[in-house]
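2024-03-11 09:14:02 INFO worker-7 job=invfold-0412 stage=load source=structure_tokens
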């Protein structure tokens, strides 16, 4: 028997490659922008969490002992959650037929909404299992994007938007949020760097290789800019 989740997965897989074209339309049509924002982005608060090592291109910096690493933020969130759902696959990498990263390292969902997600796409897990999953994702080189994401509550049919917290494990080649630079400014503004993380341009050491632009797939940085965290902000 086909249910809502079967239909959602089929639609996403069929339309995923058109996301850039659809995102660009939000900047050209006010009617389309309002419709998309209302249906998929209204109330969103999404943060990009850098890898523990940060995105350092030309040199490395020792990590201060009193610095709270990004992975610790995720760890605390998971340990405080009563309901945790682990997807069996990454819908973005499956839809893109990714050849660079594992398809089975899916999203985590926290909160009461996780109890309403269909078992066809994953299962409820313990905090320990969730932490092990996050470690595997980090070892694979994936970047975490967390937040209240209306798109997930819609396609997963998980109920109220504020009852589901998404923890995505993203790659630079297939992530849904690669469309961020093409979204209208009012929609794209809901996607921000992790609080306590700032962007800095190392003009003295920048060789204009452009690698940082490849690493930051949401388009938040340009040549010579890097993520950095300071003990004062952590």
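2024-03-11 09:14:09 INFO worker-7 stage=emit residues=234
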């Amino acid at each position: 028997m086909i249910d809502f989740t079967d239909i959602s997965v089929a639609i996403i897989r069929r339309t995923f490659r058109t996301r850039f074209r659809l995102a660009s339309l939000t900047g050209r049509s006010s009617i389309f922008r309002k419709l998309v924002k209302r249906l998929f982005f209204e109330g969103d608060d999404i943060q990009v969490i850098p890898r523990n090592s940060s995105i350092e291109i030309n040199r490395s910096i020792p990590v201060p002992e009193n610095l709270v690493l990004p992975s610790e933020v995720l760890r605390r969130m998971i340990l405080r959650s009563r309901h945790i759902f682990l997807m069996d696959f990454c819908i973005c990498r499956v839809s893109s037929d990714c050849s660079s990263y594992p398809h089975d390292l899916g999203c985590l969902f926290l909160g009461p909404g996780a109890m309403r997600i269909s078992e066809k796409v994953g299962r409820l897990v313990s905090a320990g299992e969730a932490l092990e999953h996050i470690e595997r994702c980090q070892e694979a080189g994936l970047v975490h994007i967390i937040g209240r994401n209306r798109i997930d509550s819609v396609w997963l049919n998980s109920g109220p938007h504020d009852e589901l917290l998404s923890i995505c494990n993203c790659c630079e080649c297939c992530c849904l949020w690669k469309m961020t630079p093409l979204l209208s400014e009012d929609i794209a503004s809901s996607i921000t760097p992790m609080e306590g993380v700032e962007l800095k341009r190392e003009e003295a050491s920048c060789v204009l290789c452009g690698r940082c632009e490849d690493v930051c797939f949401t388009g938040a940085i340009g040549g010579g800019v890097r993520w950095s965290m300071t003990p004062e902000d952590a």
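2024-03-11 09:14:09 INFO worker-7 stage=report msg="The mean pLDDT is 81."
2024-03-11 09:14:10 INFO worker-7 job finished
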